[in-house]
Amino acid sequence: RDALDAQDKKGKGAAQARVKAVAISKGLKEASSSGNTDDLEVLVNSTSLAQLKETDQLKKGAEGVEKIATVMSSSMFKQAMDDKDITDDVKKKMKDARYGKVKSLVKDTVNPGNRNSGDSKAELAKWSATDIVQSGVLSDPSTRAQAVRAMSDSQYEAIQKSDSIGTNAKKEIEQLREDPTVRGSRFHSDHAAHTLSQIKKPSARAQ
Question: Per-residue confidence at 10, pLDDT binned at 50, 70, 90?
Fold first, then answer.
């Protein structure tokens, strides 16, 4: 009887996963046509990773996997990057999309010609400090100053407490945060580039 119960639970679990996969596919189509990903974000983050892995997006990297990656919570995204069932090719698509979004928001936030910079800043504030670090905007001299200016106070404080960044790098980030105009040029010097290189590279699995 126990074996039958276990088999029944497994069957129900697989059926639920298929239902979720269909719902996510529908949500992706709606998000693509409307441009609004709010409903998709709720749907994805109310779904377990095990169920998400049943979708063609996470199985095969089908169209829409990029959108899923950008609306995942930080903890779910990390879980996906650590999951051995998700292929490296799919993970690369997910990382490129997620971190590309962070980079785009940073640039849009500090762009003086962007009339919607406030919206970009509000959107950027929803991302975790881990996402900002992993995106590479702080280790890249061409976006570093922009990132420090664009991030929220809570993101800045979390980054200053992060073990992923060296002490000297944190000091440079603090100086730039306090006076980005004066220290902007120094931050692009060879000395600053060397100091910020202390930002630790993500593990091979997270790259």
Answer: low
